[in-house]
Design a protein that fits this description.
14-stranded mixed beta sheet; alpha+beta
């Protein structure tokens, strides 16, 4: 725990920086999808509540997703009124690499062996640390070790597989799921599922028709919408901490 008042201030500011990045996350049922996103209109099928054909396929697909050793998520939406695009590769072991683009900022994240590292350019850090310009320059384009005691948990929505899948897990427990005949979308054969929550929120879920029934695409509608694409299942990427000479521990400065 930092004890010097100046360092406590730095820690609180870095925590706010984490929150700024976290606000850009748009997986699950958050965010606001770009109007450029298009989706096929699934053929109308017979509605199935919990225990029906659509629900059964969703449960089966979620089991495959939760047991995958790794996968890549590509999420498009908006945060704080600006478009956000994030890509992250997550592993069952808990490691991840992620990149977030928002408001012209390009932010990279690594979670390796339980430690979060974040890399951003000078404009981002200057905006986060307007009263500490020299400190901002020192952090720019370095891998900053993010404060512990839970401060790094703002990145969990990018880097933790179970958290990324939580909204879909919720979909499997309530509401109505409709399964339609397979369609071809961007060269892939997919089974469309439409989940309607008790509140009326609609989620379009597309499941692979062959091989392991992974979920390949999710589109959330309503007031807050987003599009998530899943790929790279079971690639088992090697994720390591950044090089020591490119890393900085803000708590020691």
């Amino acid at each position: 725990m930092l004890s010097h008042p100046h360092k406590r201030s730095m820690t609180m500011t870095l925590t706010a920086a984490v929150a700024t990045v976290a606000l850009g996350a748009c997986g699950g049922h958050t965010g606001n999808a770009s109007s450029a996103n298009t989706r096929p209109t699934p053929t109308a099928g017979s509605a199935a509540r919990t225990g029906g054909a659509g629900h059964d396929l969703l449960v089966k697909a979620l089991k495959s997703m939760h047991t995958a050793t790794s996968m890549t998520l590509d999420v498009r939406g908006s945060g704080s009124g600006a478009p956000v695009h994030s890509t992250s590769t997550v592993t069952q072991a808990g490691d991840c690499v992620a990149a977030v683009e928002q408001n012209g900022a390009h932010i990279r994240i690594i979670d390796a062996a339980g430690t979060f590292y974040m890399k951003a350019g000078l404009p981002f850090w200057t905006a986060q640390l307007p009263a500490h310009k020299a400190f901002a320059r020192g952090l720019a384009d370095k891998w900053a070790i993010m404060p512990q005691n839970g401060y790094g948990s703002g990145f969990d929505q990018y880097c933790k597989l179970a958290i990324a899948l939580t909204p879909l897990d919720v979909d499997a427990t309530a509401g109505k799921v409709t399964r339609s005949p397979a369609i071809t979308y961007h060269g892939q054969r997919l089974i469309p599922l439409v989940h309607t929550s008790p509140q009326g929120t609609v989620t379009h879920i597309y499941v692979a028709t062959s091989g392991t029934p992974y979920i390949l695409r999710v589109e959330n509608s309503g007031i807050q919408t987003s599009t998530t694409q899943f790929s790279g299942f079971g690639t088992s990427p090697r994720i390591s901490p950044p090089p020591a000479d490119e890393t900085i521990d803000p708590s020691k400065h």
